[in-house]
Amino acid sequence: MKKIANMILVAVLVAMMTAPMVTARVKKPTAARGAAATTTVKITNFQFTPKTVTIAAGSTVEWVNEAGKHMIEADDGSFTSDALTAGAKFSHTFAKAGKYPYHCTFHGDKGGKEMAGTVIVK
Length: 122
Ligand SMILES: [Cu+2]
Description:
- It is a single chain.
- The chain is 30% helix and 42% strand.
- By secondary structure, it is an alpha/beta fold.
- The protein has a domain at 38-121: Immunoglobulin-like, CATH 2.60.40.
- It starts with a helix and ends with a strand.
- 17% of the residues are buried.
């Protein structure tokens, strides 16, 4: 009987010691996923900040317009926002790896001219 009691005690101690590790392991991927999920690009003063963002495939870029009227258009036409007034947001999720140059329809042009940026998806 004493052996069984000892075994139970050991099992309980092991469970207590490993429980925090299990919790940490469960929490970590959620935090990592949250960090990779959405990257914010600010639209201010006729420029995109940061001008180039690098994200993981499956992640989303959210453009937040802080001033003026702007419109986000992919150079290859793969995504286009509505005309964004101050305070408006536009999001696009990039499923595939690649380089996605974009520009403001009103203040930029294809090939990184004037008001333009790039999303690099890895
Ligand atoms: Cu613009």
